[in-house]
Specification:
Biased composition (Basic and acidic residues): 94-104
Strand order of the largest sheet: 2-3-1-4
Keywords: RNA-binding
Number of helices: 6
CATH topology of the domain at 16-89: Alpha-Beta Plaits
CATH class of the domain at 16-89: Alpha Beta
Order of helices and strands: HEHEEHEHEHEEHE
Domain RRM: 21-95
Structural class: alpha+beta
Region (Disordered): 94-113
InterPro entries: Nucleotide-bd_a/b_plait_sf (IPR012677), RBD_domain_sf (IPR035979), RBM45_RRM2 (IPR034206), RBM45_RRM3 (IPR034207), RRM_dom (IPR000504), SLIRP/GR-RBP-like (IPR052462)
Length: 224
């Protein structure tokens, strides 16, 4: 995995220091910094670990940072660590930790997806969808259609949509007359499909190429 940066991002060294070597993880509240280091040292050389604590009580919030010496080590940790840690690249230090924690948890707030951070909830039930929300007016189903200006690679698209639990299949279809991408995605529940559409419609994958995600009729009763 390589994360590209725009030329406006500053020097390569600054970019590495600020954006590509720190990861943000969800951990058991019983973890100490030594526990955190022990779990993540297998992926590379760790510069430091820190656990976010409640300023009043001093208790762990169940969140922590791990900073590696190299971006490749941070990328490996995100790719290979247990899914329960929900590891993502940390925001630069110029963004307050409280703000980043809020973004990490508040999946109910619609925001523009960013190229290098996608804070998925581990389970769809963590993210509530109010019945009276106006955004869910279309007929929903467990099946999604994904469109793109660029052709899809089966394994990459599967890996992207598999971040949402319950993926049953990903079928990439090719049109010999155009260079566009088209795929059909199906989840085990409508809740997973709703969450995948909510997170990935408009997401740039690869960067600069926006995905269009819409519901496909799967023959089920959408009123459920």
């Amino acid at each position: 995995v390589f994360i590209a940066q725009s030329r406006a991002s500053g020097s390569h060294r600054d970019v590495e220091d600020e954006e590509l070597t720190r990861i943000f993880v969800m951990i058991p509240k019983s973890y100490t910094e030594e526990d955190l280091r022990e779990k993540f040292k297998m992926y590379g050389d760790i510069e430091y670990c820190s656990i976010i604590k409640n300023k009043t009580t001093g208790e762990s919030k169940g969140l922590g940072y791990v900073r590696y010496l190299k971006p490749s080590q941070a990328a490996r940790a995100i790719e290979e660590c247990d899914r329960s840690y929900r590891a993502i690249l940390a925001e630069p230090k110029n963004k307050s930790p409280e703000s980043f924690e809020h973004d990490y948890y508040s999946s109910n707030t619609r925001q523009e997806p960013r190229g290098n951070t996608l804070p998925f909830c581990g389970q769809p039930e963590f993210c509530s969808f109010e019945k009276n929300e106006s955004r869910i007016q279309e007929s929903v189903s467990k099946r999604l259609s994904v469109l793109s200006r660029l052709p899809f690679i089966q394994e990459q698209l599967f890996a992207l949509f598999d971040l949402v639990p319950g993926l049953e299949y990903c079928d990439v279809q090719r049109d010999p007359h155009t260079n566009s991408g088209y795929a059909v995605i199906q989840y085990s529940t409508a809740a997973s499909a709703i969450y995948a559409k909510y997170k990935l419609h408009g997401f740039e994958y690869p960067p600069g190429n926006r995905l269009t995600v819409i519901f496909l009729d799967d023959g089920s009763d959408s009123s459920e």
